[in-house]
Specification:
There is one protein chain. By secondary structure, this protein is an all-alpha fold. It has 2 domains: 1-36; 40-98, no CATH class. It contains 4 helices and no strands. The protein is flat.
Length: 102
């Protein structure tokens, strides 16, 4: 097993974090970053959807992404159906979101 150079990894993590902090502060100073929020009804729907997926993951004692990946590797029909429906649902939801729920 390959040893991880913790000091080098720590430096890379620090550089990444400081890069985002610096870029964010410059962008906010110039007025290029604006905080926005989604409409409240969309936040409620997103929270409810996440809650249902989380409850489903608790009931089956797993993660929905892990279920899709491991199920597809085993060619399980339920995982194939769930994964396809999950991807299509994400695409359709994104389409409605980008069009403003019209």
């Amino acid at each position: 097993m390959k040893q991880i150079d913790k000091q080098n990894l720590s430096k890379k993590i620090n550089v990444s974090i400081n890069l985002y902090i610096g870029l964010g502060s410059i962008g906010m100073e110039r007025g290029e970053i604006k905080w926005r929020s989604a409409p409240k009804d969309m936040l409620v729907l997103a929270f409810a959807g996440g809650l249902f997926v989380g409850l489903g993951a608790i009931i089956v004692q797993g993660c929905f992404v892990g279920q899709v990946l491991s199920g597809w590797a085993l060619l399980a029909s339920q995982a194939l159906i769930f994964g396809i429906i999950m991807i299509l649902t994400n695409w359709i939801t994104t389409l409605f979101y980008l069009r403003g729920w019209r």
